[in-house]
Amino acid sequence: MASNGHGKEGVGQYVQSSPMHVLDAAAVVVWTKDHQPEATRVIPGSDVTWDVTRHTMEEPTNAYGELEFTGAGQTSRAKFIRISHDTDPEKVLRLLREDWKLDLPKLLISVTGGAKNFVLHPKLKHVLRQGLLKVILKTN
Questions:
Q1: In whole angstroms, what separates CA 20 from the centre of its chain?
Q2: Would you put residue 114 in left (φ > 0), alpha (ψ -120 to 50) or beta?
Q3: Which residue from 122, 129, 23, 37 is spatially nearest to 82, judged by alpha carbons?
Q4: Is there a contact between 3 and 16 (Cβ–Cβ < 8 Å)?
Q5: Three-state secondary structure along the chain?
Q6: What are 14's strand-pairing partners?
Q7: N- or C-end of the chain: fewer Cβ atoms within 10 A?
């Protein structure tokens, strides 16, 4: 795990961050510490239902930059940014095309979660990895 300088952790090594002109106004969803127990588990006997508008707040993103992945004698870099679930897709596309100078993606993978110390059964992990590899190869 590597820190990006903003207290966030990710896989790989954080290299640098740069201003995001297109998504400066984009918001991210964060849990408030006061409501995290409600968001992460059911409270027995409670009638409180977790609600995104009540138990989260939107703030400008502070989680973006570049990760460096090293392994098997190779090093590759990948840009990342954390965005809200309701960020305008046009803004994301402009970020990819204009700021990051990337071609249109052939494959987009969205990862959601938040479980700490999540353990995936080795057989399921293998099946997932093989499935992702097959999709990636088909999209060139």
A1: 16
A2: left
A3: 23
A4: no
A5: CEECCCCCEECCEEEECCCCCCCCCCEEEEECHHHHHHHHCCCCCCCCCCCHHHHEEEEECCCEEEEEEEECCEEEEEEEECCCCCCCHHHHHHHHHHHCCCCCCCCCCCCCCCCCCCCCCHHHHHHHHHHHHHHHHHCC
A6: 67
A7: C
Q: Tokens in use for 21?
A: 């002109």
CA 68/CA 13 separation, integer angstroms: 5
Q: 6-38 pLDDT, tens per residue?
A: 444 333 333 334 434 334 333 333 344 444 444
Question: Model pTM?
Answer: 0.43
| Structural contact between residues 50 and 18, judged by C-beta atoms closer than 8 angstroms | no
